[in-house]
Amino acid sequence: MNENLTKLPDGLPVPADDGSCDHLLGKTVDSIEGKFVIMYFFPMMVKSEFNLPLGWNDIPGARGCTPQHMWINQYRGELSRYDSIAIGVSSQPVDSSQQLIWDKNLEFKEKLNIPTFAYDGKIFYKRVTIIVKDSKIIKVFYPIFPPDKHIFEILKWLKNQS
Length: 162
Hints:
The protein is α/β, with parallel strands linked by helices. 21% of the residues lie in helices and 22% in strands. It has a single domain (36-161), classed as Glutaredoxin (3-Layer(aba) Sandwich).
């Protein structure tokens, strides 16, 4: 098993578009006036490969939270050039000092019906990115694979908006 959580192992299953985000475009969300607010939902962050639940790599779209977050952090300067801010959201505990939100009560699932999956007795968000401008969801990325390259999809979309 890959001991380095910053790299994705080979052979991960690719998530399919099951239509569970088709309802999101145009929904209303509180946002920062005049900015693109990029909210990326992800299952969980762990500190070690040994903290991954057994069989985690077999769940389509589950693996890759750490590399996705690292790449988004690395490109925060470029994101700000497009008047945007990125905020990560997980239903599992996260470090809030890293522009991450722990949605332990699944409020975004309740309000927006962000898709989730159950595993090992816990509820996890599926990997989804929404972009909000002037309180409306104007772009939805789903499914996301590979997550470590997703920042480039976001940047390309932002560039096309300017």
